[in-house]
Structure formats: C-alpha cells, structure tokens
Write the structure tokens for this entry.
Amino acid sequence: MEAVNVRSQIREWIGEFNARVVTPRARELDRNADPEECFSWDIVEAGDAIGLRTLCLSDAYGGAGFDHVSTAVVIEELGRADLGTSVVFAQTIKISKVVESVGTQSQKDRILPRYRDDPRALYAIGITEPDNASNYIIPHPGAAFRTVARRAEGGWVLNGMKHFISNGNRARFYLLMAQTEEGKDLSEGSTCFMIEAGSPGFTTGRVHDKLGERLANNAELIFQNCFVPDADVLGQVGEGFDILAKFFPASNAWAGASILGVADAAYDHSVEWTRKRVQGGRPLIEHDTIAITLAEMKMELDVARSYIHASCAAADGVGEWDPTMGAFPKIAASKAAWKVVTQALELHGGYGFMKDLYMEKLLRDAAAFLHSDGVNRSLYLKAARYIRA
Amino acid sequence: MSAPHVVVLLKDILDPELPGSRFRIDPARMEPAQGVGSAILGPFERSALELALKLKDSAGARITALSVGDPSLLDGLRKALAVRVDAAVQVGLQGAANQPPEAIAGLLVTALGRLEDVDLVLAGRQAGDWDHGQVPYLMAEALGWPCVGLVRRAWYEGDRLQVLHDHAGGQRLVLVPSPAVLTVTNDDALLLRMARVSDLMAAQRRPIERFEAGELGSSASPPGFTIADLWVPARTSVCEFIPGEGPDEQAANLVGRLQEMRLL
C-alpha cells in the first residue's frame, strides 16, 4: 500500500483523537494558572488506549513498530490540536524507543513490559541543568555535568539536579545523564542511567510555569544520594553521549513535527478566517495581498514538513543521512512556525489580539521551540562544525 | 446459542464537512465532481458498525462488513477491519453512487447468499449523501425477513434479540426473531470506537473478499428515472436592521416586519 495513503489514514486517525479528546479540553486546561492543573491524565490514558505510548516499540513490547516518518505524522497532527499534548507523547515515544534500541535484553525485559502495561507510564530524559544547556548541544571543553555519579558498591550514587525537564514531574521512567568521569567534559565523561520515579534519593522539584506548551509539565529533578545499580546503566559507562547521539536525530525531527502542528493550526484558522471576514467589499482571501500571504505560509509549512520527512526517512535508512539533519529540521520548523503564526496573527487583525480567540494560545505555543530541543543558534553552530570538518 | 453472524452494511460518502466553496457538480455525469474531497464512512454506518461491535463484545458475534461501491473505495471497509470486524466483503460496481436503491438492495441480497448463514443485518438508517433510507427495507422485503428501524440498542438474551428503537415519538422495546434487518440511528452510546494503531496498520494488510456485480448474477439495472438536472442551490443573504428606540420598539417593529413577510 502506498506510503502516502498510510499517512493520510494516520492523519485522519489522529484527527479523530484530537476532535474527541484533545481539542475539547486544550484551551480550558491551558488557561489554568497552576501549571500542574494544565496537565491531563485523561488525555494520556485516552492516547494509551489507541496505542500512542508504544507507537515505536516492537510487537514484542506491545508496540506498532512505527517508522520515523509515520511517527512524525502522528506528532505533527497531535500538535495541530495542542503542542503540550504532542510533546508529552513525543518525549515518551522517543525515549522508550531509545531504551529498546540500546538496552540489553535483560534491561528491556525488566522495564518495557511494565512500561507497556501501565496506561500512565511516561518517559522523561534529564539532560538540561541550570549551568548546562547549549553546552551539550555544542560540547565545550571543561563543561561537565553538575549532576555527578560516584562509584559505590554495586552501582552509583547520584547527586545534583536537572531543570526544564519535559514530563519531569509526570514520568514513571527516566533516562538521566550524569558525570561519571572527572576532568572530562560532558561529551566524554558522562553516563546514561535508567531511573524510576519514587527511587530513594530522587525527587521532583518545581514545576515550571511556562509561557506556552502548558499541557506538558516541565519540572526540576533532584538527586540526593540516589543509588542506581550497575544493571541500570544504559549503554557503557562514560559513553552516555553515544546514547544521546541515538536520541538526537529523531528528537530533532520530531520536535520540528510538534511545532509544525501549531503552525498548521494557525494556517488552517487563517484560511477559514479570511474566507469569512469581509472587508473592502469582499472576503479577505480575495484580496491579492492576503492570498499571497496565505500562499507564503503554506509554502513555509510544506518546506518544513518535507525537511522533517526527509530526515526521518534517512533515519529509517531511506536516502542518505547527513549529520546536519540532527539540527536543521527543528530549526526550519520552529522558524517557519513563528513566521506563520505571527502572519496568522496579523491576518486576524484586532480579533486575533483578543484573548478569547485561539490566536493567543497559538502565539504562546509557537515561541516554545525557538529554544526547546536546542536553542536555534546553538543548533546552527553544531551544524557548522560538521560543515567545517 | 452459537455465535450469531452479523453483517453490517457500509457506504463511503463524500465528506459532508467538505467546505461548500469546494463542492462542484459534474454536469455531464450528474453527480458530485470527482476529486473535490475525500470519501469517508457514512455517519449512520458508523453507528451500525459500533452496534455490531457491541454484539461481538457481549454475544461473541462474528461480524462481516459488506459494501457495494466503486472498487477503489475501500476506506470504510479498512476502517471496519481496523476496529476488528472478522471479515470484509466488497461488491465492486462502477458508478454505484448513481444506482437506485432497488439495484443496490438486489446486489446486497445476492451477496448475502454467498456468505455463511447470516443471523442479522445492520444498516445505517439512511446514507449520509442522498438520505434515501430505502435499501434495508427493500432487502428485508426481498429476503422475507422482519425489519426494525431507528434502532438505538440491541442485545441477545439467550437466543432472543432484544431491540430498543424509536417509535411514535418515544422508544419501544421489541423482541426480534432471527434472521432480521435493523436500521441503526445515531446515539451517544453508538460513537464508533477508535482503532488501536496496531490494528489500524494491520487492517491495511488484511484481505478484503471481492465480488464483481456482474459475477453475482445481478447487474446494475437502469434506473427507473433519469436525472434531468442537478445543481447547488444559490444562496443569497440580506441583512436588514430593524429600527427602534430601545428593545421594546425594536421588538414591536420586528413583529410587524415578520407579519409583513408572512412569517408570523
């Protein structure tokens, strides 16, 4: 069956999920002042019921074995209804896929069935720290993770904190990057650990009050003498960055897909609005300058989507993988999204500026991925290093 | 009682949510223009499919989805497979959308004869495009089976089928002998369940049994009528402001104007 037909079916399927589950609640949840009140377990469980959490896992772990491109379609369509919802599932899908890709058979058999069987099980990955953000996008000599793991009998003892962690206070399973080798920077001396919520010495701290993407919670992770056994080291000690190298390509493209969904929504609203709003004696869409703007917006979306899909296809082994594909898709999509959403705001005139219309939320959401998953300037620099080499 | 065999009739229709500005009529074919929008499973068919699935859940019914349509239109059958019907059958017929209800009913009756003993046929109360609502009744008449319309609930108690349907402004509970035909109306309890993604993907690979209309020995018959014209009604809107100082005077003026227009 043609791939295009599959994607069309996937879009329709997620569209139905959005209409039934996400869209009726998204704006109401977004408006809650307390960020913890913006999150919905109902949405997570409804998504689990149709198989979203295990989308990329193999059949052995209850998954559908989705490829990167099909997953990007799902993530984009979720973003069309709400960015936070897209991020909640995208993070969980990405990280569970890494665990299946990299984990030993024993680790997978120990963890993934429990993950599969818990309809509320989400994943989070703790990388970002107050003093280390772009430092892990473009590793800097001497910049080590402040969260450290010291050798102990049978395992490691972790101390430190992470912040801004997506699903941080909601996840059941975590990947955690900690410094295990002194004197090295984080790209050479860190290890990836698997940790579960409720582990002694591991707590979550502040839930951040964000401008947008509010249906996803981001939180602090705090480690105080948290013991992690050797069996929960993912990959090799000191080679945590190799795990991130497996995580980043899909992460970047799928982050682009999430924010592209926001731009899709803004574009769709703009087309509908300009068809109905009459000024100058005719619908706005019949004015050339407006029509040209819509055409420009659509082109931006199509180009960003093509780039995301090309990167995903390369990650699936179709076409050639270029290392800049681990940076550019998210940049392209986030810039396109910001441009499209601000153009949409302009097209809606004064109505768009009023909080009771949908544009206000879309604008706040569109700002999220100018930094999320790597500040764009840092990602450009990362790509430039490949070009220079 | 052995597991009943339930056949649910499906029809793909042009998406009713298609923006009006995109809808076009092909004047040569006297039908909606090709390619203006996507085909989707009709809304009442979705209710019928959900009712069939509930009978599967409660009584272990075996479900066959059956559709007459253009051979390229398989969306409804694939959806049915994605929500785990047991089998899907298509009677391929080019130009099915232009066939009168009698022809469609005839093809479906013949197709039923090719299936294993059928205990129950579920159909939407009417198709979402032309709203005829005749095919299930024509089928029941041809088969000599009872037909109950506007069904909201159906369940087996032992080997007896209990059916709750709309009747005379209210609702009525009836016992229906097998085999029978039911038409299903929309109801909050009949919102078609969503498929799991693994089933959605698996449905693309599951086989669909196909018959051609000619192969069944029942061919498309010429309609008993010809379409003389088919057009989209032109709509105009006029906005008239009712004058008046304050709501009392405006209300009085509004009543007067409605009386002038013979609407009151």
User: Anything to note?
Assistant: The first helix of chain B runs from residue 43 to 59.
